[in-house]
Amino acid sequence: MVYYSLNNPQLTAPFREAVIQGIAPDKGLYVPEKISALPVAFFEEIENMTHQEIAFNAINQFVKEDIPDVALHDILKKVLDFDFPVVPVEEHVGTLELFHGPTMAFKDVGARFMANCLGYFSENNNEEVTVLVATSGDTGGAVANGFLGVEGVRVVILYPSGKVSDIQEKQLTTLGQNITALEVDGTFDDCQKMVKTAFLDAEITQTKKLTSANSINVARWLPQLFYFLFAYKEAKSKGDIVFSVPSGNFGNVCAGMVAQKLGMPVKHFIASTNVNDVVPKFMNKGEYQPQPSVATISNAMDVGDPSNFVRIRHLYQNDFERLQANLSSYAFNDEETKQAMERLHRQFNYIADPHGAVGYLGLKKYQEQHPYSYGIFLETAHPVKFLDVVEDTLGVKPEIPPQIQKVMDKQKQSFKINSYVELKSFLLVN
Ligand SMILES: *Cc1c(COP(=O)(O)O)cnc(C)c1O
């Protein structure tokens, strides 16, 4: 598959290059040159297929010149070794739980897939790749875990000191091997700024191959389409399906739209956000106006200029009316989110994390007008990952699952840095 830059369709790269570069040299996002629908029989018979078979059929066209079938099967087997259940919540509503992976966040699949692709590419190549990421919490843990022990790849994670939860910090700082955590005396924005500066610093890029591991990277973005197919497999008998996706950078919901382009029957998408409502406003008025991000209890979605939204507009060839027919977007504040968490717990005995609760709210809002659909909201993180909010709101202590307990008992290891100069010398020397 050829990918091209959204800034310039003439600027193309094969999958392998697109993954190693992360972003096109002109800073445009890469998109696949074309998306071919799967045979109708694939969707008719999907319930007879394993997750690995479904994923293989769905992703093969995007990677096949660069990853042979056998290697792709191998990668998918490693990536998809946990469950993705659709749990019934109330009539016409289920939740797709995406938190059963090693770090209990939905980013596990994308991070592992990208890590295994880079690992495969480095097998015949002795040049080391450095994955440089800034995290406000969830991304770092999933990336660290996904890349742990992958040969030819080292990972450097920057996080703001004192501003991630204990669980998140342990997930970043206790792995060792090819993973290094840099604890920055500053905010998440400071971390992100340093990372961006490094990508533009010729002294570094001349000697080190740097790439990013956020959903800008096609190898992290595309595998998220598996979730929607897995949910479809489980829920297809329930009628017209609508998906509500708690959204920050809009990579996940955009991947769902790719699944739809592959031919998956879906009635509508809902992108649910917290008060960072650039997209809900856009869907109302057709004007895209980035804003500084605002801190909320669903902090993995505190994004003021969602990076993947250009990919969504591109999928609809910038046809606003067609996009509106397929996507609704609603924003909710923290008070509403907590009320939804309470309602889910009290009425339906379901403990949702704040992100899932935002997804639930968007779904209910859509279903007010469209009561006959079967709605699935995506639960993107396990409630223990947002323990304080869950305990304060619901007055219950969710049980700490074993994969979290395991890291809580380990020793933190990090290097403190407080300036770009320190980051640079770390990257050049190590
Ligand atoms: C990253 C994240 C999101 C947002 O996903 P996008 O693809 O950026 O829209 C939602 N919930 C959780 C828990 C996340 O970590």
**How many strand units?**
14
Shape: globular
Largest sheet: 6 strands, mixed
Helix content: 40-55%
> What would the average pLDDT be, to the nearest integer?
94
In whole angstroms, how far apart are the ends?
34 Å
Across the major sheet, the strand order is: 4-5-13-10-11-12
| Alpha-beta content class | alpha/beta
Bound molecules: pyridoxal-5'-phosphate
Radius of gyration: 20 Å
Number of helices: 20
Q: How much of the polypeptide forms β-strand, as a percent range?
A: 15-25%
> What are the segments in which pLDDT stays under 50 over at least 5 consecutive residues?
none
Write a compact overview of the structure shown.
The chain has 430 residues and is of the alpha/beta class.
